[in-house]
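Q: Here's a chain of 231 amino acids. Please give me its 3D structure as tokens.
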Amino acid sequence: MIFTEADMGAIYLTLRLATTVTLLLLLIGTPIAWWLARTKSWWKGPVGAIVALPLVLPPTVLGFYLLLAMGPNGVIGQFTQSLGLGTLPFTFWGLVIGSIFYSMPFVVQPIQNAIEAIGERPLEAAATLRAGPWDTFFTVVLPLAKPGFITAAILGFAHTVGEFGVVLMIGGNIPGETRVVSVQIYDHVEALEYAQAHALAAGMVVFSFIVLLGLYGFQRKQASLGMKYGG
């Protein structure tokens, strides 16, 4: 299986994008997941629905509104221009922001579920030992919810790798800047270069299969450990 120089550039850019988005989503999504898991507020429903919107919205719809928001007259665009950064559409960091919104539920929901599964007792025990919020998080929540964080990282990374509609709407097709693997495959098909398209597409299939196989194996192992030590 031989990849062209353009294919290798698209692969590198895709991995760079997915890694950046996954790290940022873990930082952004963790407090959101914590709040959703712990709050009794009426706002939990609307906020949870907003986080989950990318699961049901067509990617082009989300991409269109993000394109407007990041454009010269949009809220994000005006803010970035005021900082002297220009506008973000058709740039790598524009792809990062779009991918964060699009992949957010795949990171927030596993972490939220893992935190909810901890229950109140470990947190109450930490409070009786006068542990502060940060101590409680790093010594109690993080170890107990580690499977949820690992699942979130795997799903966030894999989902970002497979994006097409959002990245095409926001980033267009700029070699070395916004042309990711999914867009490169589209280019090969448009040019009737089916052999090159097949090479990249087959690579995506193998990658997705390995990710899912590893994820299911990890979850099965965690379930077995839970049954062994919990019941």
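Q: Can you summarize the key feature?
A: The CA atoms of residues 37 and 56 lie 22 Å apart.
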